[in-house]
Amino acid sequence: MPAVKRLRASTKEWCERNSKPKSLNLTPVARPEPTRWQRPGPMGRNEWANFHSSYQKNVELHKALRLLGGKQKEARKEKVKKLTTEEVKTLRENQDRLTIPKWQRKKHIHPPPKQFPYRPQLSGRKKPSPEPGRPVKKPFVPCCFQHEDLETDFWAKIRFPISRRALTATPSRKICELAEPRQFPPKTHCSWPNSYENHKPKSQKMSPRQWRIHLQRLEFLSKPKPRILPPRMVCCCRRDHQD
Fold it and tell me: Whole-model pTM?
């Protein structure tokens, strides 16, 4: 006989709960709340007034339909009148007229590219490429050392291969300066004079605006000095003679 399959406690409870028949004790239906026209008891004055106004509208509508002879059919959609050829022509002319800009400008034509008499072809020039064997592979460094002396000895004996170009290259003056140890205090960029008494300051180049103001100043200084004269007095005897 096959072995009886043991069920889990939760599965067994679910089977026992759902294997029973349905109970006949139905839950009572929840009735909706009554509207203002379904409320028990007499209506108030305002409610009667609202009911009367809505009822009068419905009565007038039914009376108008009864006089017209029952419910009328919906009005048919009017047929769209097709435009004639002359009307289409005028519409297209107006459309073309409105699409033309108010201030017309000529279309910009780019000038032809400038032709140079000599145009060398530099396709045969050798492209820059890294030196073969560079960059050098990283040296193998053990993860740990048994003693500090072994570690210092390892780093002291390690060597990196030097490229051929570096052996034949001539360093510039600036690179030689940077290779030297730093000086404290640092080397000054400009040499300072020993005495400031006979030292003439270095002239600086004027900007266009400074030069323009300088010329205006020279023009003003070159003009003669205006003389300030006292106000001229009118003689009484000359006035009498003229009269």
Answer: 0.21
